[in-house]
Amino acid sequence: xxxxxxxxxxxxxxxxxxxxxxxxxxxxxxxxxxxxxxxxxxxxxxxxxxxxxxxxxxxxxxxxxxxxxxxxxxxxxxxxxxxxxxxxxxxxxxxxxxxxxxxxxxxxxxxxxxxxxxxxxxxxxxxxxxxxxxxxxxxxxxxxxxxxxxxxxxxxxxxxxxxxxxxxxxxxxxxxxxxxxxxxxxxxxxxxxxxxxxxxxxxxxxxxxxxxxxxxxxxxxxxxxxxxxxxxxxxxxxxxxxxxxxxxxxxxxxxxxxxxxxxxxxxxxxxxxxxxxxxxxxxxxxxxxxxxxxxxxxxxxxxxxxxxxxxxxxxxxxxxxxxxxxxxxxxxxxxxxxxxxxxxxxxxxxxxxxxxxxxxxxxxxxxxxxxxxxxxxxxxxxxxxxxxxxxxxxxxxxxxxxx
Length: 403
Known about the structure:
This protein has helices at residues 10-21, 40-53, 93-97, 130-150, 168-181, 197-202, 214-227, 231-247, 288-301, 307-314, 386-399; strands spanning 4-7, 27-36, 59-64, 67-72, 81-83, 110-115, 118-124, 205-212, 251-259, 273-281, 327-332, 339-340, 344-349, 360-366, 370-377. By secondary structure, the chain is an alpha+beta fold.
């Protein structure tokens, strides 16, 4: 049966282009813990049922003339369940499962490995975002329960929601707004090692892990509520303040991922995200937190415009570095719950982002405690400053809301 062909979404075109710059650098790793009986036959059937339900997991991408299209294949089979050796560590899983690189046109952009009670799923980012991991885990648990009980799993097929269309007057308003908001925004200091987008995607990334205890995370959430702002804004303010302290910057943009899901797509697997460049001015000075909150609300209010269109409207095309923002904040706050899977319970475990997404990146996982990583490409100027950045970030959080 020939695949169904339809135009690729804006987000899919973004990740297809990123693949052309740095092949094999844009995939998501999902780690699912299986607590209980691991029946490989039932698990393989459950994986087949999840792929049959979600079109994104059986979609390929190809150029037709100058247009990128998605080709949706019929749900006939699932991914091969690969047994991983016991000595394969978490960091090595993507390399092992993608020893044969993804073929974006092939329509099977998912690889699955099993090591004891740990299931590892590597999916190309073009069809999978962070929230998709939670959807995948929940659906896999339901399918595993069915497969164990009856030998067969059927979750039905989830309709894919169309990408929202921005009306021409609204688009013109958004372009004018972003041009005015980002006019003259400076680049983040590169600390003596300017990095091109191609170098970012292909270089080795160094990391610095950080965490805050549960009682401190609770205090910060309470402070954000009293101040009438989001916890995300508190993290952004502390990050921007630390960037200013370590790098000597007072005015720059921080890019952050925004879940851009159309209504009704909460339980759909796919890549439905946008990047928002949030301009922060004087984050480390008096009144900085209030200014960051105002900038965050402003960006979210005008978030429909894809980042490509924001860049086209605001940035010159001859910059070697990432346009508009060179620092990124990834904030995750979705709950990670246990899912009933019949003879087992399934839960997803946090995994740090893979690949170079910015000259300096902060990941914040807001769960029982705050934790995450700072990342920078090995040869970028920020790589040697991650310890100092983490110290400055933690100091800002420690002082937040205290007299």
